[in-house]
Structure formats: C-alpha cells, structure tokens
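Case study: Large ribosomal subunit protein bL9.
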Amino acid sequence: MKVILLQDVKSLGKKGEIVTVSDGYARNMILPKKLGLEATGKNLNDLKLQNQHAEKVAQEQYEAALELADHIKDKIVEVKIKSGEGGRTFGSVSTKEISAAVKQQLDLELDKKKMILSEPIKSLGMVEVPVKLHPKVTGTLRVKVTEA
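Here is what the predicted structure looks like once written out:
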C-alpha cells in the first residue's frame, strides 16, 4: 500500500514522502497513529498543493531577505561606548546593543542571534557586522562605535 507520511518515521521516510509499506503495517501502525494517509488521488493532490504553497512562501521569504539586505547595506548605525585615555574602551559592544540601536535608529527589527560577531567589539571606529537574514542571504550592517 502506498502511504503519504504526515510525520518523520524512523527507518521509513520523512514528512511528505510517498512510501510503499505492507497493508498490515499501514492498517495497524501508520494510519491509526496518524503517521500517514493512504495515497489516494485526493490526498496526492492535496500534498502537491501544500508543496506548491510551501515553495511560494519560501520564495517570498527569500525575496524579502534580499530586499532587507539591500536596504541595510547603505545604513550606518551609531553605538556609543564609554572610553578613557588613548581610545581605550570600558567594556564592549555586543549584538544586543547593536540590535537595540538598529531598532531605535532605523526602526527595523533585527534579531541579535542572527548577527555574526566572532568577538565583541572593543574599539572605536567603523565595523562591518554580517547579519544572517536567510539561510541563503547574509547582509552587512555597518556599525560606527563612538565615544559616549
């Protein structure tokens, strides 16, 4: 019997796949536990429509991420930090402060977890911070660290 999986089933397949299983396994295991549906014409058509919708949504998210990356590449966000003699800073600038500055100055919501800093910023000046907006899109945000 052909079955459309609704969930990942160990040693059988992943969600959305069409697999062939014995009739007894389908009747006694897959169907009662709602792990899959029988692969009828209607169910196959529904799966096809769901896949098309998912692809459309994924494409829209990708295009939105490209647009946001293009929007932030020209922007400069200013973050202030206390510093002493000779430009030595007290503390550092983390992604949390950068995210708050972006929200305040650019009115954009950028998640601090998506900013890629190898280490916190501990010097004054201009720094380019990569921001992972989508698995395929990484934008660059310029951060100007100035003395408070």
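For the exam, be able to explain this: Strands lie at 2-5, 18-20, 36-38, 76-81, 125-134, 137-147.
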